[in-house]
Amino acid sequence: MKNVFLAVALIAFAATGLQAQKYFTREGSISFFSDAPLEKIEAHNGQATSVIDFESGKMEIAVLIKAFQFEKALMEEHFNENYMESSKYPKALFKGQIADLKGVDLEKEGTYPVKVIGSMTIHGVTNELEVPAELTIDKEGVLTGNTNFELVLADYEIAIPSVVKDNIAKTVKVTANFNFQEFKKGS
Amino acid sequence: MKNALIVVALLALIGVGVGLYLYNKPHKDIAHATPDFELASAQLFADFETDEAAAQARYLDKVVEVSGTVREVSAAEEGGLNVILNTESDFAGVICQFNAEQAEAAAGLQTGQEVTIKGVCTGMLMDVVLIRCVLIS
User: Fold this and answer.
1) CB contact, 8 Å: B46 with chain A?
2) Mean pLDDT score, A18-39
3) Is B28 left (phi over 0), alpha (psi -120 to 50) or beta?
4) How confident is the model over A10-26, as pLDDT tens digits?
5) What is the mean pLDDT of each run of 10 residues along chain B (137 residues)?
6) Distance CA B133, CA B81 (A)
7) Residues B67, B49: Cα–Cα separation, whole Å
8) Would you say residue A101 lies in a domain?
């Protein structure tokens, strides 16, 4: 698999120079939470990447599965080896479109609810996904994005053995927060 | 019969003990782990860029000790820290993620400083990512 983000980055350099319509982060935060009768499990990842192109509305998010950290080593081991098969599928990727970008004014402080539509690939399985998100522009003009949504494990062919069916939820809650930087040469 | 019951009870106790131990098994102690690889941050990134699949097979889950120049230090959630090391690329780097308990040692790092950092390699997105890092020097 080629490095999609680097490709996006290079195209950005070549095509638009300094037109500041592209935003990115390499330190996005993604967490998920599984709330099952016997156990609550959460994991955090602070090295997710994301790119938004405000001209086209296209956006991407990528995350390394092995960079999710759990409280217990055993959970992390099972997550990687048994459920996500992260050596075979090291990344999760979302590629999509911000549907209602016209209402977002990057020059104006405010919080803008948007809808993101695209395809999510986890564990080698791709599904269409539509989630609500929020873009915020603060006083300094800094752009942040955040979203909460749920994922059904079965949709991504993540099989949970019946012995631990009360330990792991069938649906996990995902929370993502991104502090974007403008895409400039040398950034 | 009584003896058999005692044996069963003992086995059960051992089972529970082993189970509890496994359940609470600590994370790999990176600070005391012998690195599987020692190389320059630029070389690690170059290996991923040249052939990502081969680099994944070689480095994923391995303890890697990288040496390089600090490009950026930034605070992360829950008291953690990300230190980005330079590569040949202007854009891409090697991100070294420090958890709170190791962050203090790395918090004073300055851009341009030469460092050696040990962590677990998790792959590449824009940058190669090492997690659970420890500052060596």
Assistant:
1) no
2) 89
3) beta
4) 555 555 544 558 999 99
5) 88 89 87 96 97 97 97 90 95 95 93 97 97 96
6) 10
7) 18
8) yes
Instruction: Copy the structure tokens of residue B34.
Output: 């012998």
In this complex, the residue of B78, B90, B95 whose CB is nearest that of residue A47 is B95
Domain count, chain A: 1
Q: Which range marks the domain in which residue A108 is found?
A: 22-182
Q: What is d(CA A67, CA B53) in angstroms, rounded to the nearest whole number?
A: 17
**What CA–CA distance (Å, rounded) separates A101 from A99?**
6
Contact B28 A73 (CB under 8 A): yes
The answer to whether position A40 is within a domain reads: yes
Domain harbouring A37, CATH code: 2.40.128.110
| Residue A25 CB coordination number (10 Å) | 22
Identity of the residue in B25, B52, B53 whose CB atom sits nearest the CB atom of A73: B25
ipTM (interface predicted TM): 0.88
To 10 degrees, what angle do helices B41-50 and B52-59 make? 130
Q: Which of residues 2-21 of B touch A (CB under 8 A)?
A: none
Are the C-beta atoms of residues A42 and A71 closer than 8 Å to each other? yes
Which of B136, B133, B43, B30 has the alpha carbon at shortest distance from B86? B43
* Mean pLDDT value of segment A24-32: 96
E-state strands within B25-80? 37-40, 63-75
Q: Is residue A187 in a domain?
A: no
pLDDT tens sequence across A90-119: 999 999 999 988 888 888 999 999 999 999
Query: What letter does residue B78 receive in the DSSP assignment?
Result: G
How far is it, in rounded angstroms, from Cα B34 to Cα A87? 22
Place of tokens 């791709």: A126
* CATH class, B30-135 region: mainly beta
H/E stretch holding A50 reads strand A40-53
Cα distance between residue B137 and residue B133, in whole Å:
12
